[in-house]
Amino acid sequence: NKQEAINTDIITLTRFLTEEQSKHKEATGDFTLLCHALQFAFKSIAYYIRRATLVNLTGLAGQSNATGDDQKKLDVIGDELFISAMRSCGRVRLLVSEEQEELIMFDEFPNARYAVACDPIDGSSNLDAGVSVGTIFAVYKLAEGAKGTKEDLLKPGTEMVASGFTMYGASAQLVITMKGGNVNGFTLDTAFGEFILTHPDMQIPKKRAIYSVNEGNSLYWEEPVKEYINSLKYPQEEGGKPYSARYIGSMVADAYRTLLYGGIFAYPSDKKSPKGKLRILYECAPMAMVFENAGGKAVNSKMERMLEVVPEHIHDRSGIFMGSEQEVQKVIDTHKKFQ
Ligand code: AHG
Ligand code: MN
Ligand code: MN
Ligand code: MN
């Protein structure tokens, strides 16, 4: 039997970014530099997560953040690593982090043209159990003459120039997409210290019978959500099979699986959390861009396109349904019946 040849033409993230830059004649290299800083932040966060149990980095930090979450030690470290990477690249003017109540302004770089929103560690409640967590990021380009204030970030997701997330699981994965582009997946090769392009042009399957939601909230769900989830569990058609349930509780991991296998991920707004749980700037919008660019769909609890939702403040929240096109369409159709 024939042995498969080893791939010697490896595309590293470094090569990928350089090639992307050379496609744009007008490019200054600022965005590429910013991406290199992101890449460094991901590698260092991945490193500390792997070592957490060995170096006393498990457990709580003792404070809570602006959205009321108890911070884990690694939430704080991930945040510090991310902030210094963004500062040191000199191309970022504004930064919003889940772990920082206020917007960070890098006044030392008044001419920097980018703004970034990040969730340094998504799924941090899972950290001590060794379950996959990740980092979510969104990059915005400041408008010409922007003052460098909060208003520059209170924009719809359609304004993002790039977004993506990492998942620190059995291996570290990076999923990245640029405005109007496709979605590419990289795997960190720890021996090389490089992210390698392993999932070029990711396309989410059009449908798949998997749903991902925290069912413990069902008491608080609105009627359309109850009816929709019930329709998956108790199919009405003759011979219909119920959907499988998968819920990790780290959005990055649930989203990564959904991207690869298809299905739906939902964190709807409900009677207890009328604005939903997940935050628009650094959780919902960047994920929505990834899903749309991979051929999927993402809407909020009002069935509006997630990417068009404008946050009122930097930590604003939203309900979200995202996944395969046909699965999200079912959610929309069920909601229509209630209008
Ligand atoms: P974070 O760890 O950044 O605060 O985000 C947690 C989010 C997300 O990862 C996940 O999908 C959701 O919270 C899980 O919430 P529940 O525990 O309420 O299901
Ligand atoms: Mn949190
Ligand atoms: Mn999160
Ligand atoms: Mn977080």
TrEMBL record:
<protein>
    <submittedName>
        <fullName>Inositol phosphatase</fullName>
    </submittedName>
</protein>
